Amino acid sequence: QVRLVESGGGLVQAGGSLRLSCAASGMIFRINVMGWYRQAPGKQRELVARETSGGSTNYADSVKGRVTISRDNAKNTLYLQMNSLKPEDTAVYYCNARMMRLGDVDDYWGQGTQVTVSS
After folding, report:
1. 3-state DSSP call for residue 88?
2. Is 33 exposed, middle or buried (0-12, 13-18, 19+ CB in 10 A)?
3. Are residues 112 and 92 in contact, defined by beta-carbon separation less than 8 angstroms?
């Protein structure tokens, strides 16, 4: 089991920045991939960025160049630095931890944090 707690969301004007944090606890040594997803009203949840335990990252095309995913292993915390925010970035942002073992995939989610970008 893994517990994820997000923080750092809020209201920001277009062009502004936010840093989201995700504190992980539990069986974190079994996590293979951690990432951030978002879900806007009426839309499906979508990947924003993710990082493997080996350090590989990938980003959604819509956020490339504006968003950076990083982690502090000493604090068991994942971050999402978002710059040049746009109104279309408005969504609930969720932290995800994925464990993959012997063909099984287990996904864990945080409670979500709201990001609202005003124009």
Report:
1. helix
2. middle
3. yes
